[in-house]
Design brief:
The chain is mainly alpha-helical. The chain is built from six helices and three strands, in the order ααβααββαα. It has helices spanning 9-34, 39-49, 58-65, 69-81, 103-123, 130-147; strands at residues 55-57, 85-89, 97-101. Strands 1-3-2 form a three-stranded antiparallel β-sheet. Strand 2 and strand 3 form a beta hairpin. This is MarR family winged helix-turn-helix transcriptional regulator. Residues 1-145 form the HTH marR-type domain.
Length: 165
């Protein structure tokens, strides 16, 4: 019996990843919207909150989020108008600037996180035991290293402005 190429298990795996992503977005977007945030707004704020000194160079933030430099500029402009993020110039390199999480941005995240974490528990944490979660995170990191190699740019330590030159 010939197996159809449409029955390839690789297609099933990609279909499942797509379905899970769409389901997670559908479940979590209302939480972000209720807080006046889009998915990318939340991603930007949470990445800043988890970075050294709650700041990232704009170029690193663009790389981490997968946005173009103009795209991340628009997101930061919007978040700056809401007083969730501030820009900080680099004292040693006029070409470089940082996006910095403000106290208001931290408060907004603190408001969103309890519901967001409850959704994460319902859709992920509570479904897997500790070993499964560790294995799943390992697999996700391997996949991310291939498809988004810059996803942690600037996150390991405070980056010097001159490193951007």
């Amino acid at each position: 019996m010939n197996v159809s190429p449409f029955d390839d298990p690789r297609l099933t795996a990609m279909g499942l990843i797509t379905e899970v992503h769409a389901g997670l977005a559908a479940r979590m977007n209302p939480v972000f919207q209720a807080a006046g945030l889009s998915w990318i707004d939340f991603e930007t704020l949470i990445r800043l909150s988890r970075s050294p000194e709650h700041r990232l160079r704009m170029t690193d933030l663009a790389t981490q989020t997968g946005l173009s430099t103009s795209g991340v500029t628009r997101v930061v402009d919007r978040l700056e108008r809401e007083n969730f993020v501030a820009r900080m110039a680099c004292p040693t390199d006029r070409r470089a600037s940082y996006a910095v999480l403000t106290d208001e941005g931290r408060r907004r995240l603190a408001d969103v996180l309890p519901r967001h974490l409850a959704d994460i528990d319902a859709c992920y944490t509570n479904l897997l035991d500790e070993g499964e979660r560790a294995a799943f995170l390992s697999v996700l990191r391997k996949m991310r290293a291939v498809v988004r190699p810059g996803a942690t740019a600037g996150a390991s330590a405070a980056q010097e402005c001159t490193a951007q030159a």
